[in-house]
Amino acid sequence: MTTRSASVSDDELRSAVERARRLTDGEPEPYRSIAFQTLLDYLINNQAPSGEPAGLHLVAGLDLNEFLASLRAETHPDRVLGIAFYQERYMSGPPVTARDLTEAYQRARLRRPQNFPDVIASLVRKGHLVEQGRRDGLKSWGLTGTGTARVERELA
After folding, report:
1. What is the pLDDT of residues 31-43, one digit of tens each?
2. What spatial distance separates the first Cα and last Cα of the chain, rounded to whole Å?
3. What pairs with residue 96 in β-bridges?
């Protein structure tokens, strides 16, 4: 791992380690170790000038429409990531199913993709979502550390 400079304080390192640990907590091995190392390197080397990692600041009380409007999610994969993030972080809910995604698109009054399985499969291939078993007889998917980091860093 490379560091941006010798000016990284102990508090910044502790914060980066804790955040990387939190973001990779749900990942199975060996992906957790790889994701942790990659995220830690990213967090240390890509901090905002204030010392706080740049990214999404959760505002309590946002509904799904407000949350999606606050993101730069112009594509269906980005919207699906945003919905999964909202469900897991804001609603403390279980991983999303295709039914959850359809309902979220309807609540947000967005045109839904013609083929949710294709959108989900593309996110799984990219490592942003991972299958989490079945819920109510339907497959469910949860965010990976990489998926969470994408929402927090690139879409916020």
Report:
1. 777 777 777 777 6
2. 26
3. 141
